Amino acid sequence: MQKVTLLTVGSPKSSWVREGREEYICRLLGSIDFSIVPIQPGKSKDPVRQCEEESQRLLAALSKQEGEVWVLDESGKELSSQELASTLARARDLGTKITFVLGGAYGLNDAVRSRAERIIALSKMTFPHELCQLIFLEQLYRAAQIQKGSGYHH
User: What is the 3-state secondary structure (H, E, C) of 75-108?
Assistant: First the structure.
């Protein structure tokens, strides 16, 4: 079973995002060994400083993770759901553990991006940070279902 970790800034404040997140985590059981590691959000009112604080915390947490780092960032490559599924399947077949990194509202600094084996964009559109967690989890679940051939992805 593939080991996947999501390293993310903060935990969702919206109840509907928390509920959706838990729904997809439950759906992933048995398909992917999945965990979320929340990082304390920055407290600075300055967006640049907040991004730096959070990026430093993410780098410190990354030093404790094994496997490849795949950053979720607007500067990354967009993948179709099927491309994500096949990329994850190749990593699974090689026994590669993956840590996905999702920054806070002000994104990630270049030091975090430089740690990545892959940089993936969820979309060209901008979404609230909390919603990105939910979108990512749905896509991770969809990728697992594509790999199984379940019919969830038409």
Answer: EEEECCHHHHHHHHHHHHHCCCCEEEEECECCEC
- Domain 2-148 bears CATH identifier 3.10.620.30: no
* 153 — pLDDT class (breaks 50, 70, 90): low
- In angstroms, the CA 4 to CA 25 distance is 11
Distance, in Å, from the CA atom of 153 to the CA atom of 120, rounded to the nearest integer, reads 20
Find out whether 27 and 147 touch, Cβ atoms under 8 Å. Answer: no
The answer to whether 134 and 20 have CB atoms below 8 angstroms apart is: yes
Residue 7 in contact with residue 62, Cβ under 8 Å?
yes
Nearest to 105 by CA among 138, 70, 133, 77: 133
Structure tokens at 22: 């838990």
**Full-model pTM:** 0.94
